[in-house]
UniProtKB/TrEMBL annotation:
The lineage of its organism: Bacteria, Bacillati, Actinomycetota, Actinomycetes, Streptosporangiales. It comes from the Bacteria. This is Coproporphyrinogen III oxidase. It is found in: Cytoplasm. Involved in coproporphyrin-dependent heme b biosynthesis. Catalyzes the oxidation of coproporphyrinogen III to coproporphyrin III. Belongs to the protoporphyrinogen/coproporphyrinogen oxidase family. Coproporphyrinogen III oxidase subfamily. Its main location: cytoplasm. Signal peptide: none annotated. GO terms for cellular component: cytoplasm. It catalyses: coproporphyrinogen III + 3 O2 = coproporphyrin III + 3 H2O2. GO terms for biological process: heme biosynthetic process.
Length: 488
């Protein structure tokens, strides 16, 4: 029987672990290389007041199937949880205000609901209403989100609604982010419809704008969404090597050699790069220079998450809703705050069990927008700024009982104008080399379901390529030991 092909996956985040899981299911031997000391990438949880709380992404989009299907496949269905009742809000014009009903990624679908929310000034609301009467705005090619929405609805819609929502996903700026890549629901409307507001209204009415119409919008896992990557890593077992960085790639007569920073090497049939774009560019520079050049053009933004456990009495009034977004012009450092114990009932339950007699609440504050320089501050300064902002917005008047700060430096790829074309060029160049692939947040989407989908597609493509070429022999006398990572 022919020996199973062997693929080295570089990167042990959700994309790399999912790709390895899919490859293993397709009969491929896999080795995952993760430079950090633990797998999981930006999906990580640690204890706050005795309860695991996500230190990265905390939920998945439930209206995409990929994450929920993977949960079920891994036997995690009984741990799936959905947010509690309560809506998100925005801190605008000096107070917390509800997000307008009937909006899509901040683009309003109802002038009446926009006015009722009070997020914009009256002049800003009237300016947004001009979209209903103005002629169609031609959109030729990809354009910045801010430019298109700003022309249709004015700068206040961009600054106080669209950018805060995009900021939570990309930590980016609406004047640079791609309409096609970051708002794929809106882009077809921009090219097809005269009024963007009417198009959003029609779209939401067609699918039901209330969360209950198509089930909850978001989902997570009891114990944190990071349970996904820890479960994947457990399934892969000893095939995941942490603290191991790929130094370079060498093309063999049949297959590839991955040289490691520790001086070792792995010979394999294929390599799947599931690492950030700059690292992939470095590894591809000698073999796919066009792909490397494209990947070097993908910019990244960083963010920090400050997680607090407070006594409930620290707030003059009970926290309501699930949290709030903060537009950049409000003069605060934080860009969002999540009332985690309101949003996730399981967390409140376990917090009460772990701290009997103490009435505690968990609040997560997000800091960092592309180019704003906020992450240049020290940890102490970021914590102090987050506490001051919570005092301004909520009246917080007591210190936390525990604080955790997590930095994700250069953690979020920026989908600039032309991003989709860039990804197509990169993949075309990479796929021109047998046994090579790329996947991850820099390509098919930054959300967890998008990363899962992208990893699955690339794993299937690579497995199919290896079957087609039937790489059953490797060059050199060191085939066996190198495959196990022994120094040549």
């Amino acid at each position: 029987m022919p020996e199973a092909p062997h693929v080295v996956v570089v990167g042990g985040g959700v994309s790399g672990l999912t790709a390895a899981h899919r490859l293993a299911g397709l009969g491929t031997a896999v080795t995952v290389l993760e430079a950090a000391g633990t797998p999981g990438g930006k999906l990580h949880a640690s204890a706050v007041a005795g309860v695991p709380v996500d230190a990265g992404a905390e939920s998945v989009l439930a209206r995409r199937p990929e994450a929920l299907e993977l949960f079920a496949e891994l036997g995690l269905s009984d741990r799936i949880v959905h947010p509690g009742r309560g809506a998100a809000a925005v801190y605008s014009r000096g107070r917390i205000r509800p997000l307008p009903k009937g909006q899509l990624m901040g683009v309003p679908g109802s002038l009446r609901e926009l006015a009722r929310s009070g997020v914009l000034t009256w002049t800003g609301t009237l300016r947004a209403g001009l979209d209903l009467v103005w002629p169609r705005t031609p959109v030729r090619g990809d354009v910045p989100v801010g430019a298109y929405v700003g022309v249709r609805m004015g700068p206040q819609v961009v600054d106080r609604l669209v950018e805060p929502l995009l900021g939570g996903v990309y930590a980016g700026r609406a004047d640079r982010l791609s309409l096609d890549s970051t708002l794929p629901q809106i882009a077809p409307m921009a090219r097809r419809d005269r009024s963007l507001m009417r198009a959003v209204h029609t779209s939401l009415r067609g699918r039901g704008s209330a969360p209950t119409a198509a089930g909850p919008v978001f989902a997570s896992l009891r114990g944190g969404v990071a349970t996904l990557t820890s479960t994947l890593a457990e399934r892969l077992g000893g095939n995941v090597r942490t603290g191991t960085r790929a130094r370079s790639l060498e093309r063999l007569p049949r297959g590839w050699r991955v040289r490691l920073d520790d001086g070792g090497a792995l010979d394999c049939d294929g390599v799947l790069l599931a690492c950030p774009a700059p690292e992939a560019a470095r590894l591809l520079a000698d073999h796919a220079p066009a792909a490397a050049e494209g990947l070097r053009g993908v910019e990244y933004a960083g963010m920090a998450l400050v997680t607090f456990a407070f006594p409930a009495s620290a707030f003059p009034e009970p926290l309501t809703g699930t949290g709030f977004l903060v537009p950049a012009g409000e003069g605060l450092t934080i860009k969002a705050a999540t009332y985690s114990t309101n949003k996730w009932p399981w967390l409140a339950e376990e917090l009460a069990d772990a701290n009997p007699g103490d009435d505690l609440v968990v609040v997560r504050c997000s800091i960092g927008r592309a180019g704003d320089g906020s992450l240049e501050r020290s940890d102490e300064e970021l914590v102090s700024a987050a506490l001051a902002d919570l005092a301004t917005v909520t009246g917080r008047n007591a210190p936390p009982v525990q604080t955790r700060l997590t930095r994700w430096n250069a953690g979020l790829p920026q989908y600039a104008v032309g991003h989709a074309d860039r990804v197509e060029r990169v993949r075309s160049a990479v796929h021109g080399l047998p046994g090579l692939g790329v996947c991850g947040a820099a390509y098919g989407g930054v959300g967890i379901p998008a990363c899962i989908a992208d990893a699955g597609r690339e794993a299937a493509h690579l497995a199919g390529t290896l079957r087609t070429h039937s790489h059953t022999h490797r060059g050199g006398d060191a085939d066996g030991p190198n495959r196990q990572g022994v120094n040549p």
